[in-house]
Amino acid sequence: MTATTFDPQAGYIVTASSSFVEFNDQVFTSFYQPVLGPVAFSLFYALKAQLRPRPTLADRAMQSNLLAQLNAGNGQVIEALHRLEAVGLIQTYFQHDEVGDVYVYELQTPLSPEKFIADNLLSILLLEEIGEEAFERLVDQSRQYRLASTDTSLTNISHHFFDEFHINSQSITSTPQSIVNARNQAPVEKQPSLTAGMATDFDWSTLLHLLANQPVVSADLEHNRELILIEHQLYGIDEPTMKKLVLRSISLKDNHFDPQKFKRIVASTYNVVYTRPAKVAEKESSPIDKDNDQLTSRDRQLLITAKDYSPIEFLQDLKAQTGGYVTSGERHILTRLIEEDKLQRDAINILTWYVIGDRGNSTLSANFVDAIANNWLRNGVVTGDQALIQLKTFNKQSQEKKTQPLKKKGGRKTINEPMPEWSKKKESELMKKASSQEIAKLRERIANRKKNKRRR
User: Fold this and answer.
1) d(CA 94, CA 60)
2) Domain residues for 44?
3) 357: in domain
4) Domain-embedded: residue 438
5) Selection from 45, 63, 161, 44 nearest residue 103 by Cα
6) What is the pLDDT of residue 256?
7) pLDDT band of 28, cuts 50, 70, 90
8) Which position among 13, 65, 266, 385 has the lowest Cβ density within 10 Å, counted as fewest Cβ atoms?
9) Burial class (CB in 10 A: 0-12, 13-18, 19+), 333
10) 124/251 same-domain check
11) Which segments constitute the Replicative helicase loading/DNA remodeling protein DnaB N-terminal winged helix domain (predicted)?
12) Do the beta carbons of residue 113 and residue 142 sit within 8 Å?
């Protein structure tokens, strides 16, 4: 059994990785808070406050307590939890036992500033969120205790371990059992991978061929391969365009590829606020299956565009029609959908079109997008064609429900009673004053009724 939603009636406990003793509040606040948002930031500290030595499943508390403590709705907490999982700060586990459902939230140690900056996904996300100037200030702050002087001839004269310490040589060749036991009980932990399972259609060999005769150190490209592929996946950058971006990121001093400069160039190139009108369906692309009679010519044209655009580019062009722009939260939603690698790119674009173009919403909402994506996956929808057909089916069913008469609750039969004669008369007749003869007759009938009652 698996769980996909945050159930307030389920139990939970909080654990942490062994390295969590290194947790640093300042690093967490400076580097993670801008990308997490207020609810996720608060949720992490709420869970951290629940840490207890040697927790067991019997120590579970109700998740409804978290909702009350955070003063947030169920949907907000779900989105916050997903964000913490996505950046590698929480690993969530679930099981159902005789007591009921229980979640185990294992807190992970935030990356150090240098590792955060070196991580391609996190550093790009932070750069887009706070801007280049604030990002550079944060980098300088994290390196404030380094030696500022550059023109030195310093030599490392530090002593080595065996210069000062001596241990039994036999213990080196034959590890003591207590150490073996400790290692077996707690194997070396690895930081959760943020890009595990991420697929790509980028032709790496083509990029290397395009850069073969260019002034760039080839080893730098291989070292930064993940960064380049992530930027391709996020913005749909093709190989010739990537070549231009890489060349703009080369240091003129030594021809080395500068990954930080590359991130800034890509962010400034694709994070555009549109103020001019644009059309979303003018690119040519691969042909669409014309045998499917459920799709109109307009549907097929939309699918051509959905297949030809990257998710960010597609959303940017949609926003261009109303003068809007892509928010950091929307980029996070699309990045997460791409990383999960369950919906194809054209299906993600159809989802975006439905929320922004068809329903007229101003922004993508994580809860709404997740609800649609989960519904599609549950019904086997992964491609753009299937997504459009699913939307058509849903709209048709909704229209049929609107036209159906409402059913009486409880299955009761409708009782048709004859209407009284007075109800059929016009209002003017009902409001007309009675004549003196009619009043006399009425008084006589009342007097007769009283006489009959006395006789009984």
Assistant:
1) 12
2) 11-110
3) yes
4) no
5) 63
6) 85
7) very high
8) 65
9) buried
10) yes
11) 17-244
12) yes
**Could you read off the pLDDT of 191-244 as tens digits, one per residue?**
555 555 554 667 888 888 888 888 787 788 888 888 888 788 777 788 888 888
The per-residue pLDDT for range 242-253, each reduced to its tens digit, is 888 888 888 777
pLDDT digits (tens, 9 = 90+) for 305-358: 888 777 887 888 787 776 677 777 788 888 888 877 788 888 999 998 888 888
How does DSSP classify residue 417? Answer: P
Element (H, E) at 13: strand 11-16
Closest by Cα among 387, 373, 358, 375 to 294: 387
Q: Are residues 24 and 125 in the same domain?
A: no
**Which pLDDT does position 413 carry in this prediction?**
47
Examine residue 444 and state whether it is found in any structural domain, yes or no.
Answer: no
Question: How long, in residues, is the chain?
Answer: 456
Question: 427 is written with which tokens?
Answer: 């209002």
Report the number of distinct structural domains present in the chain: 3
CATH number of domain containing 27: 1.10.10
Stretch 421-449: mean pLDDT, rounded? 61
User: With contact defined as beta carbons under 8 Å apart, do 66 and 46 qualify?
Assistant: yes
Among candidate residues 348, 279, 283, 351, the one with its CA nearest the CA of residue 318: 279
Q: What is the dihedral of CA 150, 155, 159, 160, to 10 degrees?
A: 90
Phi then psi for residue 250, to 5 deg, are -85, 135
- 367 shares a domain with 229: no
127 and 225 assigned to the same domain:
yes
Rounded to whole angstroms, how far apart are CA atoms 91 and 17? 10
How much is the average pLDDT of 441-456? 65
213 burial (CB, 10 Å; 0-12 / 13-18 / 19+) is exposed
Q: Does 228 share its domain with 203?
A: yes
6: exposed, middle or buried (Cβ count in 10 Å: 0-12, 13-18, 19+): buried
Q: Which DSSP string do the residues of 344-377 spell out, in sequence order?
A: -HHHHHHHHIIIIIIS--SS--HHHHHHHHHHHH
Average pLDDT on 161-182 reads 66
Tell whether 92 and 133 lie within a shared domain. Answer: no
Question: Do 117 and 101 lie in a common domain?
Answer: no
In a domain, 447, yes or no: no
